[in-house]
């Protein structure tokens, strides 16, 4: 079981995350969804929790968000616009698409939005997609 203390020891940047209820609920989800990843279970739970908290921070709407929320959102934001090819004459850019997205799997779409999600996606590929339950 991933506890709040264990998670915060690994990711201290979330120590001032607010509201605490969101952190607690996300830990419950992580523990329930990632139970059979062998040696990677703890890592999958941590990455899922960090990913979901970052998405929450990125959608935080109050006019004066706490600096920790902005820092979390900025630090965890993944790049989804990777350039696959470019052309200088007549300027042409082609962006790479995620294999998870291009295969039609909608349950993985949010994972490309944060660096934690991208790491989790790599881990899921090692263990099989069927274990990720959004």
Number of strands: 2
Give the uncertain stretches in residue-range form.
Answer: 98-105
Average pLDDT confidence is 77
What value does the Rg take, in angstroms? Answer: 16 Å
Give me the strand/helix succession.
HHHHEEHH
Intertermini distance: 19 Å
Strand content: 5-15%
Largest sheet: 2 strands, antiparallel
Apparent shape: globular
Q: In percent, how helical is the residue content?
A: 40-55%
Give the strand line-up of the largest sheet.
1-2
Structural class: mainly alpha
Q: So how many helices?
A: 6
Structure report:
The chain has 134 residues and is mostly helical. It has a domain at 4-78 and 114-131. 49% of the residues lie in helices and 7% in strands. The protein has helices spanning 4-10, 20-33, 41-58, 67-76, 99-102, 115-127; strands at residues 83-87, 92-95. The chain has a two-stranded antiparallel ribbon. A hairpin with a 4-residue loop joins β1 and β2 (92-95). α2 (20-33) runs antiparallel to α3 (41-58). The radius of gyration is 16 Å and the shape is globular. The model is unreliable at 98-105 (pLDDT under 50).
């Amino acid at each position: 079981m991933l506890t709040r203390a264990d998670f915060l020891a690994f990711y201290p940047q979330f120590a001032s995350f607010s509201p605490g209820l969101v952190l607690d609920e996300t830990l419950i989800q992580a523990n329930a969804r990632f139970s059979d990843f062998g040696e990677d279970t703890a890592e999958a739970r941590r990455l899922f929790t960090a990913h979901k908290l970052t998405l929450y921070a990125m959608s935080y709407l109050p006019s004066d968000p706490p600096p920790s929320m902005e820092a979390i959102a900025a630090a965890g934001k993944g790049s989804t616009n990777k350039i696959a090819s470019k052309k200088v004459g007549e300027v042409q850019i082609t962006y790479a698409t995620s294999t998870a997205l291009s295969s039609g799997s909608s349950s993985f779409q949010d994972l490309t939005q944060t660096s934690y999600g991208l790491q989790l996606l790599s881990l899921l590929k090692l263990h099989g997609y069927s274990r990720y339950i959004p």
